[in-house]
Amino acid sequence: VRQVEIDAYGGLDVLQIKEREDPAVMAGEVLIDVTYAGVGLIDAILREGMLPLPLPFVPGLEVSGHIRAIGEGVQGFKIGDPVVAMTLLRFGGYASVVSVPAQSVLSVIDGVDLKTAAGVIVNFATAQFILGDLAPVGAASRILVHGASGGLGTACVAIAKAHGVKQIVATTSSPAKTAYLKSIGATTVIGVKDLKASLEAEGIDLQFDIIIDPVGGDLRTESFDLLALRGKLLIVGGAEQGEDIAFSSKAIWLNNYEIIGVNIGGMSNAEPARVAKAGSIVLDMIATGRLSAGPIAVLPVEEVGEAHRRLEAKEITGKLLLQF
Ligand SMILES: NC(=O)c1ccc[n+]([C@@H]2O[C@H](COP(=O)([O-])OP(=O)(O)OC[C@H]3O[C@@H](n4cnc5c(N)ncnc54)[C@H](OP(=O)(O)O)[C@@H]3O)[C@@H](O)[C@H]2O)c1
Q1: In whole angstroms, how large is the CA radius of gyration of the chain?
Q2: How far is the CA of 316 from the centre of ligand 1 (A)?
């Protein structure tokens, strides 16, 4: 197996490509010959040691490719099947061969290719899990999505649109991406400075039923004040990597707010079928033309450092993959 290993926290130079012995397929798992591995900001956060993992480790939350071997007790797959998998439990996606628990593996159905499947599986499944399961949306839901031009942000906008939501407000620190965000379904796009004033200038009520926040910091503090009665604030990440913040429990109590943490990895450990269902819904929506995957850029695995650089420089719109 060819894999990207991190054996010390740090900058781009800690991403090392190593040749190791192929892993064996384990009981209850399938062994996948990887074609594409997804790159996400979480990988850069882990590389820097902001959320320390035991060293050494291979980053990567998602892969697509073909089944090479099937472990004991696994049913429903055959060798050579095209599949997409969430490697959320122990990371390890940046590898040419990977063994994944079968419950986190989905068949790549007709109408979806391997690149699209790897490009959508984690971010779009997370978005579908949020908007279809944790905070189910309807046409009348008033939604605010932060970090909208990122992988998870674009997925949330696109999934909200696919569910027929009429008001999807997106914030972005990259104003050049406004036209793109509107093209995928955002009804209003605003900057991250002076949130309330920007919303008022657009004639938008300062009341949201669902706020999705992968960024944190001041945006999170301001978002709390923008919740409608019974509003849900979904804390899904910390792209800004700033200080943690606190909320008023009294305000949560009196306004029936729901503050919901979303960690798709932890959820995939606790309830894999629920997460896989969200993934299947996404693949089906793409295959039937109800959802567009958005831009997916591909770099050869040798350019993994460049991939992390682009991500941290916010140069990516949509999803970035490594090809093996
Ligand atoms: N909870 C989960 O299960 C789950 C699943 C997937 C991702 N995530 C989390 O969601 C966050 C975004 O992940 P992603 O893969 O979507 O990343 P990404 O593609 O790099 O997008 C991150 C976006 O956040 C915004 N941003 C604001 N401040 C930033 C900063 N200082 N550095 C970089 N980006 C900044 C940018 O959007 P604008 O330019 O539009 O502001 C950027 O495009 C991460 O914290 C990740 O861990 C969580």
Answers
A1: 19
A2: 10
